[in-house]
Amino acid sequence: MNRLIYALALLFALVSPTQAETLYWASKTMLSLQQSKADIFDLPGSTFRLLATDWPGMEVVIITANTVRAEQLLRKRDDVCTGNKLITEARKNDFLVSELPQTVFPGQRLYVRGTALTQWLSDQPQQTELSLQSLLSSGIRMTFGVNSDRSYGDRVDSLLNTLDDNITLWSRPGDGNSRGLVDMFLAGRVDAMLEYPTVFHHYKKLYPDVDQLTQHSRAISELPEVAGGYIMCSKTDKGKQLMAAINARLKILSQQRRYLDVHLDWFPSALHSDIVDYYNHYYGTHFAL
Question: What are the boundaries of the signal sequence (predicted)?
């Protein structure tokens, strides 16, 4: 009888499906595995769907959390990850970071409006790199808008934390902060801001009557021409297991044309050639348009 019980137990173990790991994914928006037309400008959501759909041995559970809350969860729990993050030295020290980025996109640019700032910008030589530090130390009075749910990288974060008295820092918190910041800029309540060009132009299209001549933008030396949004996980043994699975998954997906196509869907056709170049550089691929 004991042998029969042992044999049945062994057979059950062999035929029973392996229990899936659970990955808790912290996101600013409640993501869905179903694509919708509203997501056409949501590159992080679109790449997440490819990452999470039909992932053998992995169950993904969404936790709605802004960036600050997501980082708190990564510190408090051992099984949480979050995506599309610019990596700073502090984040590398506090969290596990994916080997490859989840997303690749053109870097943020400086946007200014108003007579004094646009004149200052036009006076800067086009052939040389523009420094944000030179603008912030120009003595021009301005309201500088920032997205409180975002790190701009070590160099820019440091500059924004040590502003002169002539500069008022306006911080946009909460949901929809990217759109809210662009709204404030276009309404003239913010004089300068940093934003990704695709995000800026996406929301600017909602205001066709705004005078285009009042806005000027330039790349700045403190921010990269192209950026990668990486995945971060809890710095724990469980987090290491999840990150190993994420790294393996990204290595496979990034070599597939559909992962590039999701990126291209998010950008205007005029940028597609640059996006392919950025993508090939980051992922070691050789795709063409």
Answer: 1-20
How far is residue 124 from each of residues 101, 118, 244, measured CA to CA in Å? 34, 10, 46
- Specify the DSSP class assigned to residue 18: P
Contact 235, 96 (CB under 8 A): yes
Question: Residue 71: pLDDT above 50?
Answer: yes
Give 4 or 271, the one with higher predicted confidence. Answer: 271
Query: DSSP readout, 127-143?
Result: TSPBPHHHHHTS---EE
Q: What is the CATH number of domain 2-105+227-283?
A: 3.40.190.10
CA distance 59 to 115: 54
Domain with CATH 3.40.190.10 in the chain: 2-105+227-283, 108-218
| Residue whose tokens read 């949901």 | 175
CATH architecture observed for domain 108-218:
3-Layer(aba) Sandwich (3.40)
Contact criterion met (CB below 8 Å) for 167 and 117: no
pLDDT at position 119, please? 92
pTM for this one? Answer: 0.81
Distance separating alpha carbons of residues 214 and 188, to the nearest angstrom: 10
Residue 211, pLDDT score: 63
Task: List pLDDT tens digits, range 164-205.
Answer: 999 999 987 765 677 888 889 988 899 999 998 888 887 887
Query: Which DSSP letter does residue 232 get?
Result: E
Residue 277 Cα to chain centre, angstroms:
19
Name every residue whose Cβ is closer than 8 Å to that of residue 178 and which is 6 or more positions away in sequence. Answer: 147, 195, 199, 203
CA distance 46 to 55: 15
What average pLDDT score do residues 59-64 get? 94
